[in-house]
Amino acid sequence: MNKPTRSPWTWVPTLYFAEGLPYVMVMTVSVIMYKRFGLSNTEIALYTSWLYLPWVIKPFWSPFVDILKTKRWWIIAMQLLIGGGLAGVALTLPTPFYLQASLAFFWLLAFSSATHDIAADGFYMLALDDSQQSFFVGIRSTFYRLAMITGQGLLIILAGFLEKSTGKIPLSWSITFLVLSGLFIAFFVYHNFILPYPASDVERKGQTPRKILVEFGNTFASFFSKKGIILAIAFMFLYRLAEAMLVKLASPFLLDSRETGGLALSTQEVGLVYGTVGVIALTIGGIIGGIVASQKGLKFWLWPMALAITLPNVAYVFLSMTQPYNIWWVNMAVAIEQFGYGFGFTAYMLYLIYFSDGEHKTAHYSICTGFMALGMMLPGMAAGWIQEQLGYQNFFIFIMICTIPTLLLVPFMKIDPEFGKKKINDQTENSKKK
Fold first, then answer.
1. d(C-alpha 236, C-alpha 234), whole Å
2. Structural domain range at position 173
């Protein structure tokens, strides 16, 4: 039976909006929520950093998503599972055992979200021809960023409004997660009817899990036999070392009392500053980074981008020393840091593409993204404990010290001067802050 053809406009924007939301909820919103529940920074950083693990090991199960069922089936199934996981978080928050239960549901959300990423990106390539893929690169990136603003901004503002209205923090966050759960059930219903049925989106009957494991083992071995592998892995771990720790403590710093060195912003103000102004600055930085890199290539821009992702962290040193009451100063400092991150992150994504090039470039790129997630997970786990030992001011000075390995590594990177010129890969458009 021939299925009706669907315009990409009916599903690409909603698909990538749905892809961005659960990642933001797991990695960013959970930090703010647990801070409002009174957890220590050590606990928050440790527990939420563990949630990176599904993205770390995603390359290991992505081949099975490729052979079992269809990409369309995985998308629909994961959206239903995400909706259920969000409802689980909402229903357990008012309970005495909220921490253990909500973390279990966040783990479910993390695995479902990572699987949804695999299926959605694969479906995009199967359902669209080359010209459509090129045209919709910017559209998918835009709606992913809108999801970030919705999650880190609008939903945080909603939670803050409910906190003030009800005076009950668990109830406020429970309602917020229920709203999002309802949205994902709507995505599930909508995409079940709207997503097209590409002829190439079929189960790979000739493949078996055993064959996939053998093939992946060979691909994995070829990755580690690449020339310059040690330097490449060092770059993947160290380029974002400072940012990996900073991102875990940025929101707690904005929320903490002035007596403990924080800025004492309300939940609504954090949603505006970090989740809205910050994300917009991050997006603009990424767009400009992509444009300039396409002019003179990665090698030319590596130093400026490395400086951009490290030096603006001094904005948090400034905030911790001055503790300004004027929120415009806070907005400006966060915007500068996030703009620098977005601009500098372009070099990171381009390098992953550059190093992955070759016979198994898709699989090798997937392995690189696993190392990328691990590079955020491990430093983030220790960040809360370090901050509580040093205090915010000294912690942000320590963050600046952690930028040194990044800058020491740059001179040793060997990159083709022509790489990146006039042909920025669309994967840089999907640069999620992982």
1. 5
2. 1-207
Block means of pLDDT (10 residues each) for the chain, 434 residues, are 68 92 93 94 94 88 78 94 96 94 95 91 81 74 87 92 93 96 96 89 69 76 88 93 94 95 94 91 88 84 94 96 95 95 89 80 81 92 95 97 94 82 48 46
Distance CA(266)–CA(251), nearest Å, equals 11
Domain of residue 315, CATH code: 1.20.1250.20
How far apart CA 54 and CA 414 sit, in angstroms, is: 31
Q: Helix, strand, coil proportions of the chain in percent (round to 5)?
A: 80, 0, 20
Q: Are residues 108 and 16 in the same domain?
A: yes
> How many other β-carbons are positioned within 10 Å of the β-carbon of residue 362?
11
Type of residue numbered 183:
L
> Encoding tokens for residue 64?
């099975």
The residue with tokens 């229920």 is 178
Measured CA to CA, the distance from residue 394 to residue 318 in angstroms comes to 11
Q: Which two tokens stand for residue 354?
A: 């550059």
**Distant-in-sequence, close-in-space partners of 203: CB < 8 Å, separation ≥ 6:** 67, 68, 69, 70
**Quick one: angle between helices 361-390 and 58-67, nearest 10?**
140
Instruction: Decide if 55 is inside a domain.
Output: yes
Handedness of CA 136, 142, 148, 151 (dihedral sign): negative
Q: Which two tokens stand for residue 31?
A: 């930090």
